[in-house]
Design a protein that fits this description.
The complex is a heterodimer. Chain A is mainly alpha-helical. Chain A folds into 2 domains: 42 residues, no CATH class; 107 residues, Cytochrome Bc1 Complex, Chain D, domain 2 (Orthogonal Bundle), CATH 1.10.760.10. Helices cover 34% and strands 5% of the residues of chain A. Chain A is built from 6 helices and 4 strands. In chain A, helix 5 packs across helix 6. By secondary structure, chain B is mainly beta. In chain B, the strands form 7 sheets. In chain B, strands 7-6-15-10-11 form a 5-stranded mixed sheet. In chain B, strands 8, 9, 12, 13 and 14 form a 5-stranded antiparallel sheet that branches. A 5-stranded antiparallel sheet of chain B has the order 21-20-24-25-26, with no helix packed on it. The longest helix of chain B is centred in the middle third of the chain and has 8 residues. Chain B is built from 9 helices and 26 strands. Chain B is globular. Among the domains of chain B are: 173 residues, Oxidoreductase, molybdopterin-binding domain (Sulfite Oxidase, Chain A, domain 2), CATH 3.90.420.10; 121 residues, Immunoglobulin-like. Classes of the chains: A mainly alpha, B mainly beta. Chains A and B meet through helix 1, strand 1, helix 5 and strand 4 of A and strand 6, strand 7, helix 6, helix 7 and strand 15 of B.
Chain lengths: 182, 427
């Protein structure tokens, strides 16, 4: 879509879609956005899409992950991640429970993509030092948690190629809200 | 219910059972109402002359740099839950709806929901980046954004988990404790469509992914159609810069959509072809149904209302005329009508909508009610301008099943006992 056509489309949306807007935007744009260097963009762009694109270099195994888990995760999530007395949702288990009266929604039983396990660990964990893990550590932890949930084999080295190919038990369990379905 | 006629008879006309009076009765009959209902003014038993209070005879406090509520209002606080002691900054506080009136939430009482904690952001070191499927990735600092045309709208924000306790249980706490994950502010900022117009869009652009700058970097996906419609990069809340716990120095306002997509502390927007399905839009904030499947991206908050005055845990002092009032809202549009019952749903009457009545905004409703002293069950039912009707508890439960904790909007009844005590009940 050309910039010109986009501006026209946006204008139509503004006039037809918003009851409180009394007139379309006519204010001249200040155009103060600043360009970014490729390196800057690459630093900030940590979004991992559902096809696994933008996963970083690095790798890890479940055995390596268990070591990191004990050091950096077990204090809050329990010795293995399956514990139910931690005041946190267990990280492991719940398979087959979603259609029961007591569903257990773990990353293994509920989350639809393996890639989002890596994404969430890398940007939000550990709670007391988010974004402190190396990519290797985040991949290794992902491998440990997937292995502990019985989703991958012990031998799998998790990296940007193998992780998107992992089949999650509930990958077909989510339905787009009707208003956004194509 | 009856028509708009209001006879100036001895007994005010009831418009629905168990004492509901015409919504304009307070305005048309004013002070004669109390007498007509037999609630006579009580003669003063004092015989001595009254004494002037101290504040009329001596000077009080001076000027101040930032005004605060009266010390007599110090009990008006956000309502805290029971946070996990390991992570005390994670969780929510609720707006004390039972202690407020009107439609605007004071900034210090806007509900909080934090997924990690409140960052202490220096605005001079904060930028907003837009990249991905755009023609030109761009970044704006605060001084640049300050020069863009701004728009102001009054809109509610509601956490999708609001009222979840009322879905599963019948808690006897307070209306704020049960339903206070909703607040309403005037938000001022820059339409996101202005900034996307500047970056341009590339082929395939159909969603945006917004990321916050807090420790856990909250991530939510929003349809591009919504982003181009009425989404604002908000800088001001009720006239002042957004409070830190609401996203200082900037947050997304996504009108009518569940709270967590109104990404606080927003610092990066990536335009993409498919939603991100991140942890907080799959592992959380999805609606698990009885068959084990879950709905994702149920972003719009449905039509809802509740009576705040009187409400659970209050006590009516004595029979007589009361104003029943509450709040109604819909993520689909404006509230068109709120009906109130005092007889547990046998009959309903229209409440007065206290203007302004705005789309995707809290709307205050009011109706006079003559309480005889007998048992009564009060409830409200809202209808929006798209024709959506607030469902009963049973219908609301049937929609998403009993498991999910989100998007509950069933009718909320309160029972008034002969003692005047108000309790939460099912109707």
């Amino acid at each position: 879509m050309s910039a010109c056509r986009f501006a026209l489309a946006a204008g139509l949306l503004l006039t037809s879609g918003c009851a409180t807007q009394t007139k379309p935007v006519a204010h001249p744009a200040p155009n103060l956005g600043q360009a970014m260097t490729e390196a800057e963009l690459a630093f900030w762009d940590t979004s991992i899409l559902v096809d696994g694109s933008n996963l970083p270099a690095g790798s890890g195994s479940s055995a390596q992950g268990l070591i990191v888990y004990k050091q950096k995760c077990a204090a809050c999530h329990g010795a293995t991640g399956a514990e139910t007395d931690t005041r946190l949702t267990p990280l492991i288990g719940g398979m087959g429970s979603l259609a029961t009266a007591q569903p257990v929604r773990t990353l293994g039983s509920y989350w639809p993509h393996a890639t989002i396990v890596f994404d969430y660990i890398r940007r939000a964990m550990p709670y007391n030092a988010p974004k402190s893990l190396s990519n290797d550590e985040a991949y290794a932890l992902t491998a440990y948690l997937l292995r502990a949930n019985g989703i991958i084999d012990e031998a799998l080295i998790v990296d940007r190629t193998t992780l998107p190919a992992v089949k999650m038990p509930n990958q077909n369990g989510f339905v787009m809200a009707p208003e956004h379905a194509k | 219910m009856s028509g708009d006629k209001t006879d100036a008879a001895d007994e005010p006309e009831q418009v629905a059972g168990n004492g509901l009076l015409h919504r304009r009765l307070f305005l048309t009959q004013g002070l004669t109402l109390a007498g007509a209902l037999g609630v006579a003014g009580q003669a003063s038993a004092q015989t001595a002359l009254p004494k002037r209070p101290d504040w009329m005879t001596r000077q009080g406090a001076g000027l101040s740099g930032y005004g605060q509520p009266s010390k007599f209002e110090e009990g008006v606080k956000r309502l805290t839950g029971q946070p996990n002691p390991l992570f005390p900054s994670v969780g929510s506080t609720r707006t004390p709806l039972e202690k407020l009136n009107g439609m605007i939430t004071p900034n210090g009482l806007h509900f909080e929901r934090h997924h990690s904690s409140v960052p202490d952001i220096n605005p001079d070191a904060h930028r907003l980046l837009i990249h991905g499927l755009v023609r030109k990735p761009l970044a704006w600092d605060m001084s640049a954004l300050a020069r863009y045309p701004m728009t102001s709208v009054i809109r509610f924000i509601e956490c999708s988990g609001n009222s979840g306790a009322a879905k599963r249980n019948v808690p006897q706490t307070s209306v704020g404790q049960i339903h206070g994950l909703v607040s309403c502010s005037e938000w001022t900022g820059i339409k996101l469509s202005h900034l996307l117009d500047e970056t341009g869009l590339a082929d395939g652009a159909s969603w945006i992914i917004a990321e916050g700058a807090e420790a856990s970097s909250m991530v939510r996906s929003i349809p591009l159609e919504t982003a181009l419609d009425d989404v604002i990069v908000a800088l001001y809340q009720n006239g002042e810069r957004i409070r830190p716990e609401q996203g200082y120095p900037m947050r997304l306002l996504v009108p009518g959509c569940e709270g967590s997509v109104n990404v606080k502390w927003v610092h990066r927007i990536k335009v993409v072809s498919e939603p991100g399905d991140s942890r907080d839009e799959t592992g959380q904030y999805t609606d698990l149904m009885a068959d084990g499947r879950a709905l994702k991206y149920t972003l719009l908050m449905d039509v809802k209302s509740l009576i705040t005055h009187p409400s659970v845990s209050m006590k009516l002092a004595q029979p007589g005329v009361y104003e029943v009032s509450g709040l109604a809202w819909s993520g689909h549009g404006a509230i068109r009508r709120v009906e109130v019952t005092a007889d547990g749903g046998k009959s309903w009457a229209d409440a007065e909508l206290s203007g302004p009545v705005l789309p995707k905004c809290l709307t205050r409703f009011r109706i006079p009610w003559s309480w005889t002293g007998g048992p009564a069950t009060l409830a409200s039912r809202a209808i929006d301008d798209r024709g959506n009707v607030q469902p009963t508890h049973e219908v609301a439960i049937a929609r998403y099943g009993e498991i999910g904790a989100y998007h509950y909007n069933g009718i909320q009844p309160w029972a008034v006992a002969q003692t005047g005590e108000v309790a939460n009940v099912r109707m």
